[in-house]
Write a structure and sequence with these properties.
about 210 residues, about 55% helix
């Protein structure tokens, strides 16, 4: 990044759960896969990312309304590998400089960081002011994600990344049957998760305007 810029962005601050239990070789491979995933986000959406303290990372998104979709996707990335991640979300003005996200400043970064420090049993928290009904929706989605199997998470992640493709298309990619893909998506409550993502986009957009 060559110049400073300030945008209204969504921020995810995350911490890998029980990363210390991984063998060193598995941990190093996980970091390679995570960097690849985050680099793809940068290329596709203009996201910025920063990995710090070994098992923590931040993602800044140009469009805050994509916040919950990407938060759910990053959890699926870990769940399909038998892991999970605590994710703290916020949106607000952020100033990015030559140092990128590592040296960025802004209210959203502070909120997301404090939220991660204070997270307890949840895996997904939102740190901007919101009404009780939206907060309950977040808790419900957090509960659903925590119950996913590795295979359910894998199929759901592909479904979200590819903007809801035909089940037969996913079946071809995964070398399985269309019926199995449909079964896994239904077990993952994909329609409810997709409906929440749609709700979150309109909710955050209403707060930006």
């Amino acid at each position: 990044m060559s110049i400073s810029q300030e945008n209204y962005m969504g921020v995810l601050t995350a911490d890998i759960v029980n990363s210390q239990s991984l063998r060193q070789s598995d941990y190093e491979q996980l970091l390679v896969q995570l960097k690849y995933y985050l680099t793809a986000l940068r290329a596709e959406f203009g996201a910025e990312f920063h990995i710090f303290r070994g098992d923590s990372f931040q993602i800044a998104l140009p469009k805050a309304k994509a916040l919950f979709k990407q938060a759910i996707a990053i959890r699926l990335f870990f769940i399909q590998r038998g892991l999970d991640v605590k994710v703290s979300l916020a949106h607000g003005p952020i100033k990015l400089s030559l140092g990128g996200l590592a040296t960025a400043t802004g209210e959203a970064l502070v909120k997301a960081g404090h939220g991660l420090d204070n997270i307890k049993h949840q895996r997904l928290v939102y740190n901007n002011t919101c009404d009780e009904s939206f907060l309950l929706n977040i808790r419900f989605i957090d509960l659903l994600l925590g119950k996913l199997s590795h295979k359910q998470a894998q199929v759901l992640l592909l479904y979200l990344q590819q903007d809801k493709p035909e089940h037969a298309q996913l079946a071809t990619q995964l070398s399985t049957s269309r019926a199995n893909v449909t079964k896994l998506l239904n077990l993952a409550n994909y329609t409810l998760i997709d409906a929440f993502i749609t709700l979150s986009k309109s909710y955050i957009f209403s707060k930006e305007t």
